[in-house]
Amino acid sequence: MNFSEKLQQLVADLDQEKASTAEETEQFRIKYLGSKGVFKALFEDFKTVSSDEKRAFGKQLNQLKSTAEAKFEEMKASLNASTTATKPHLDLTRPGSLFDIGAEHPISIIKREIIDIFHGIGFSVAEGPEIEDDWHNFSALNFPPEHPARDMQDTFFVKNPNGSDDFVLRTHTSSVQVRTMTEQKPPIRIIAPGRVFRNEAVSARSHCIFHQIEGLYIDEGVTFADLKQTLEYFAKEFFGKSKIRLRPSYFPFTEPSAEVDVYWGLENELDHRITKGTGWLEVMGCGMVDPAVLASSNIDPEKYSGFAFGMGLERSAMQRFQIPDIRMIFENDVRFLKQFQSAL
After folding, report:
1. E strands of 157-295, at which residues?
2. What's the angle, vertex CA 251, arms to CA 156 and CA 188, rounded to 5?
3. 197-201 — which CB contacts under 8 Å span 24+ positions?
4. Euclidean distance between CA atoms 278 and 264, whole angstroms
5. Domains in the chain: boundaries
């Protein structure tokens, strides 16, 4: 077959070529326009054509290559149009898909409610480090060196890499009260929520990590009556109960000290169970700030007095949401946490 016949055959072949898929379109490109395709071979054969015929054959060959390239682009355009036509129509007026909303943790719910209650009567939030030194965690709060809370069975100690005295994981948020008293002059009215640590066995009712929220009010002329009124207001707002009682107790940093009970009632079986048949539910500890604690923070106990109180958040959360096991609060099980989604 001479060169002229090859060109005529190519014209007929190009006219018959069709492609309906991306694979067929690519095969057309490789067959005619690829590095080993038909046109590559023809241009090699063109070198053997006589000088008299080169001008005419060269022009025809270039036109055929342009025709093949145009046909390839046509195939691609047709393929793209077909793909676009089969895509689902996007309705921009449709409402967007809602993302799953996270749930508020039960501890966060309780903490937020308590903070809001005390904000309403002038208390602000104070925070402090979870790793404390001995003075802020024990000494400034009137804990003598032989106090049981300093024992390794109760406290997590953290080795100081500098070789000086060891630090501890704070055993209560009372250390925040000390920091506030040393940095701020009275009047002081704060609440201190936070995580605390005790070296205790983990069970359904106790954990080595838990949360506290403590309150402190220091000013001139603060009395035990002010403490009782504050606690009565809190009990009514948080528990919906207006009757409380104060039982004598002991805490190193308050004197006198008391345990606070709320009268829960005995209306059903649950009331009998959580109050052990007495109708009274213990909710927190409290007392007047010991003058020695004030003095250790350079506050004149002859001029100022104050009260402090503190409660555990886990106990309130378990009672509020009927959580049977404290360990569920720390396991981060999505099935458990989703139950509190409606609380957001």
Report:
1. 157-158, 167-169, 188-197, 209-219, 244-251, 254-263, 280-289
2. 95
3. 197/130, 197/156, 197/169, 197/170, 197/171, 198/154, 198/155, 198/156, 198/171, 199/152, 199/153, 199/154, 199/155, 199/156, 200/154
4. 9
5. 3-81, 106-343
For residues 171 and 196, the answer to whether their CB atoms sit within 8 Å is yes
CA separation for the pair 196, 213 (Å, rounded): 10
Nearest-angstrom CA–CA distance, 11 and 22: 23
Give the residue among 10, 47, 12 at the shortest CA–CA distance from 32. Answer: 10
Nearest 5°: phi and psi at 48?
-90, -5
- Evaluate whether the domain defined by 106-343 bears CATH number 3.30.930.10: yes
Contacts by 227-232, CB closer than 8 A, 24 or more apart:
227/286, 227/287, 227/288, 227/307, 227/309, 230/121, 230/307, 230/309, 231/260, 231/284, 231/286, 231/309
pTM for the model stands at 0.68
Could you list the pLDDT tens digit for every one of the 344 residues in the chain? 677 777 777 778 878 888 878 888 888 888 878 878 877 777 777 777 777 777 777 787 788 788 888 888 888 888 776 655 555 667 778 787 777 777 789 999 999 999 999 999 999 999 999 999 888 888 889 887 777 767 655 888 888 777 666 788 999 999 999 999 999 999 999 999 999 998 888 888 888 899 999 999 999 999 999 999 999 999 999 999 889 999 999 998 999 999 999 998 888 887 888 888 898 989 999 999 999 999 999 999 999 999 999 999 998 898 888 888 889 988 888 888 888 865 44
- What span, in angstroms and rounded, lies between the C-alpha atoms of 15 and 33? 15
The span from the CA of 8 to the CA of 10, in Å, is 5
